[in-house]
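Support request from a user on the community tier.

User writes: "When I paste my structure tokens into the form, the page sometimes reloads and wipes my input. The last time it worked, I copied everything first. Here is what I submitted, just in case something in the input itself triggers the reload:"
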């Protein structure tokens, strides 16, 4: 089976997530992360506490940016006491620019964008103290 065929039948997706403009401080001070996330999810689970590891159901709702924000908040964010520095509800906090494969997420459908194998998602804070 070719690598692309294996990726399309896998229950997970691999992508790169990058943080800039100070966002990296919330994520172990590491600006770039290669992550593996489930390919599908159950939207009802986003309102409940996250299990120790993300389940990888074989079917369900295809992963979108809404899920990615939740996953990053639950599994990668270091400061669990202050998740509002990253997100508000199911979306990103105002003042954070999201680029999906170098394109503004507003042009890609925002929360509805379906995450694809190999995507690069960049979060950049545009808010700076002074």
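"...and here is what came back when it finally went through:"
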């Amino acid at each position: 089976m070719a690598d692309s065929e294996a990726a399309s039948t896998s229950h997970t997706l691999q992508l790169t997530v990058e943080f800039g403009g100070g966002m990296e401080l919330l994520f172990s001070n590491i600006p770039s992360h290669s992550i593996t996330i489930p390919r599908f999810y159950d939207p009802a689970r986003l309102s409940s506490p996250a299990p120790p590891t993300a389940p990888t159901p074989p079917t369900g709702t295809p992963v979108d940016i809404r899920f990615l924000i939740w996953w990053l908040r639950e599994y990668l964010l270091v400061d669990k006491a202050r998740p509002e520095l990253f997100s508000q509800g199911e979306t990103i906090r105002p003042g954070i620019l999201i680029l999906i494969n170098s394109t503004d997420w507003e042009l890609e459908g925002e929360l509805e964008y379906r995450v694809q194998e190999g995507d690069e998602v960049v979060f950049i804070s545009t808010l700076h103290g002074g």
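Agent notes: The reload is a front-end session timeout and is unrelated to the input. The two ends are 55 Å apart (CA to CA). DSSP finds three helices and nine strands in the chain. Escalated to web team.
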